[in-house]
């Protein structure tokens, strides 16, 4: 997969050299290219923002540098190959979910446009929306100072789903929100050695070696945790899918 990020703070994306994403890059599974938006400015102050039409506080990112930058990045693709999905981080976007991470992980190319100030002039989103798949995405109901942290969040969520990135391909199957074993539930508690720590043991069933009972226990714990922490997930789940999953265990 190829990922391009256009930003005024490329150094903010340094963590993409570390850990899972860094290793995926080093192994050639992920091609990440960072671009400084200011390279597409033409004045001596490298201006990327201006006052908002209609007045009000804050500044808005100008369309000109974004247009030039995106034309250059998108134009660098191989002729005839699938164009990128443009991912626009914004608190006013659709929520970023595991489902969307899975969908994006199946695309060959993503371009991220993390903004600063009050965001990007709307015409940029409209312009590229006419020719590309554009997703305006929010990572949560709060406002950050810029879109770089959301890009780190989204790239990590997507990268760990790419074939070959996780050591054990099965390991995201049981994650919270995964469509597989957990069927929209949160993952329950996990334990490792030693079997006793500060007087606290682990549930006997985990030592039983009985796969069926362990799966049943995990499912019950996942359900309990979801009821406690995210009752909204239970409310919107399909009861038929729940029953089917429970019969399988
Ligand atoms: N005035 C905007 C609003 O209220 O929707 C907030 C702009 S915010 C200060 C600047 C930039 O940070 C946004 O354009 C976006 O790129 C990024 N950002 C902030 N919070 C975000 C969130 N929850 N999800 C995704 N991106 C976010």
From TrEMBL:
Function description: Specifically methylates guanosine-37 in various tRNAs.
Family the UniProt entry places it in: Belongs to the RNA methyltransferase TrmD family.
The protein's name in its UniProt record: tRNA (guanine-N(1)-)-methyltransferase
Subunit structure of this chain's protein: Homodimer.
tRNA methyltransferase TRMD/TRM10-type domain mapped to chain residues: 1-235
Binding site for S-adenosyl-L-methionine: 139-144
Localization per record: Cytoplasm
EC number: 2.1.1.228
Cellular component terms (Gene Ontology): cytosol
Principal location: cytoplasm
Any single GO BP term: tRNA N1-guanine methylation
InterPro entries: Alpha/beta_knot_MTases (IPR029028), tRNA_m1G_MeTrfase_C_sf (IPR023148), tRNA_m1G_MeTrfase_TrmD (IPR002649), tRNA_m1G_MTases_N (IPR029026), tRNA_MeTrfase_TRMD/TRM10 (IPR016009)
Keywords in alphabetical order: Cytoplasm, Methyltransferase, S-adenosyl-L-methionine, Transferase, tRNA processing
Catalytic reactions on record: guanosine(37) in tRNA + S-adenosyl-L-methionine = N(1)-methylguanosine(37) in tRNA + S-adenosyl-L-homocysteine + H(+)
Keyword Signal: no
Taxonomic superkingdom: Bacteria
